[in-house]
Amino acid sequence: MPNSYEPNDVLAPLGGYLNFALGRGQVFYYTNNQDSLIVSFIDVPEWHYGTDTAGSHTFQLILYKGDSSITFQYGPQRGEFDYGSNMVPTTNAIGIENATGTIGLQYLLNNTPPENMYEDSLAILFYPPDTTYLQITDIMVVEAATEGSHGFIIAVRDTFTPYVIVRNCGNEDAGSYTAYLKIKKLPGAYVYSDSALDSPLAPAEEETLYFSPWIPRGCIYL
Question: What's the pTM?
Answer without folding.
Answer: 0.70
